[in-house]
Amino acid sequence: METLLGKLNEGKTKQIFELVDEPGLVLVQSKDQITAGNAVRKDQMEGKAAIANKTTSCVFKLLQEAGINTAFKKLHSDTAFIAAHCEMIPIEWVCRRIATGSFLKRNPGVKEGFRFSPLKMEMFFKDDANNDPQWSEEQLLEAKFTLAGLSIGQCEVDVMNRSTVAIFEILEKAWATQNCTLVDMKIEFGVNVRTQEIVLADVIDNDSWRLWPAGDRSQQKDKQVYRDLKEVTPEAMQMVKRNFEWVSERVQLLLEPQASGRVVVLMGSTSDMAHCEKIRKACTSFGIPCILRVTSAHKGPDETLRIKAQYEGDGTPTVFVAVAGRSNGLGPVMSGNTAYPVINCPPITPDWGAQDVWSSLRMPSGLGCSTILSPEAAAQFAAQIFGLTNHVVWCKLRASMLNTWVSLKLADQKLQACTI
Fold first, then answer.
1. What's the sign of the alpha-carbon dihedral 246, 252, 254, 258?
2. Do 85 and 26 meet the contact criterion of CB atoms below 8 Å apart?
3. Distances (CA, A) of 340 to 100, 307, 336
4. Interacting residues of 161 by C-beta distance below 8 A, sequence separation 6+
C-alpha cells in the first residue's frame, strides 16, 4: 500500500494526495459527494466515490488503449486511482454534439436538439467566485499561464483543442455501441510535472457529460437528473444513484470490441516475409489478428482457392492482403473469387518495379481489389474497413490521427524555436 505524503488539493468531489514512495505520482481519492450549481446544491450519496472511480478508470483505460496521452496510471482501490502529478490548466474544455443546457441560455433562438457538425467547442475559466465564466481563445492566450515550466501559448491551446475533439469522438463512438448518445462533455488538461507534456487529466465520470440512451433526453442517465430535482428526497437520491450505477456498469462494456475480424496475408514466396511482417506488426498495433500464408496463384491455383475457402468458411470477417512480386496473380485471382475485400501490397523492387506494379493496378472488369504499396498503409486500410463495425479499432485510428497531428505541430514549434 502506498504511503501518502500530504494533501495537495481538494475539490468538491475528490482529494489529491502526494505519494511518498513514488515521486511524480499522486493518489486521486473520490468522495461520496454530489454537487450542482457550483455546490449551491450539495448532498452525500453513499457509494458515489466507488461508482465515480470505476467510471473514470474505465474511461481512461479506453482512451489510453486507443492511444490518447492521459495522466491515469492504474486503479488503486475501489475509491481511488493513481495518476501522474500534473499542474492543472484552469480551463474546462466543453465539447458539444447536441445543443442543450447552458448553451441554449447563452444562444437564444437555438432550439434544443440542434446538432453540431463539426463539434462545438467552448472553454470556461475555472473560477468559482465568478461561476466559471466562458472564455475566448484570446483570453486564454492573454492569461499567459505557465504551469510546470510550460508556457501556454498558441501551440498548446491548439493541441488541447484538437485533443478535446478527438477524445469526444472516441467516447461518442464507444457509447454508440450501447445505443447511447454522448450529448456533450467537459474535460481538463494538466502539465505532467516530470515530462512537461500536456495530458488529459482530472477525471471523466458521470459528472462530466450528458448521456441520453437512444438519443432520448427523458431517459438521461447523467448528473443532469440531480440538477433537475425539484426537491432532494431519499427516494430521489436512490434514483440518481441507480442512474450512476447504470453508467458505471455500461462503461465497462465500452472496453469490449463489438465485432471480430482478421487480416490474412497471402505471400507468393517466403522471400516476401520481411514485407509481410511489417503488415502483421502494423495490424497488431490496431489490435487486429493477422495470419501469414504462402501460396502462389500461378503455380498452385487450386491450393490458393482452398486457403481462401478455409477463411471464408468460419464466418469471421476477413480482409485478404496479396503480397506477390513480379507478376501479381494472387490479388486478381483472390478478388475474382471472393466477396471479401482484397488489398494488393506488392513488394516493389528498384529494377522492374515500375513494370511489375501494373499487374496489381490494371484489373479485368468485375475485380475490385485495391493496391497499396506501403505495408503499414495496407494494414491501416484494413483497419479502416474493420473500424466501420469495430469501435475499438476505430478509436485507435482516431487517436493515431490526433497523435500524428500533435507530433507535427510540436516539431514545427521546435524548429521555429531553433530558427528564431
1. negative
2. yes
3. 43, 13, 10
4. 93, 121
